[in-house]
User: Fold this.
Amino acid sequence: MKQENQLQKSQTNILEKYSHKVNALEIAKNAKGKSLGECREGDSFTLATARKEGGIESAEKIVKQFVLVLEKQLNLSKLTPESTEAIAEDVYEMAYFLKVEEFAYFFRQLRKGTYGSMYENLNSEKVCTALTKFLNARSSYYEGKNIGSHNESTTKPDGRINETSAFRDISKGFLDKYNKK
Assistant:
């Protein structure tokens, strides 16, 4: 019981602390209801920026905040500080380039079960598998968006020639000349 209270206290302390100039959880609240594209366009910072300014511990604390909130929201079995640390390290290594708003989007989708169910517990393997699916979907989304914007910006030539109809016109002209003789 005493150990459980200490665990809850340490998790609460981690949640209350933030490791960057802006609280990551506040950014997550502002990202509610946004699409992936809107999150990408947001003005939040990336984990790489957090690491540059505050060290790797700073970036991992941001990930820990999201993990602890997810655990609390899903009412999963209690994570030990070591397992929370492991998840944060693994997620950081895989997705240090994401903006905090994109992390908020990912964890919101994870909570909804978009990338698989979280039965009874949360572990690094489940989160990393879901993150891989998210990164693949994100990559496909932006790849399609880039191709779409490229297609919109290219213009088709005005004097386009349909080779079949041009050939037909030439053939008809020759046939008309031949029939007149």
Remarks:
- The first helix runs from residue 2 to 16.
- The chain has nine helices and no strands.
- The two ends are 109 Å apart (CA to CA).
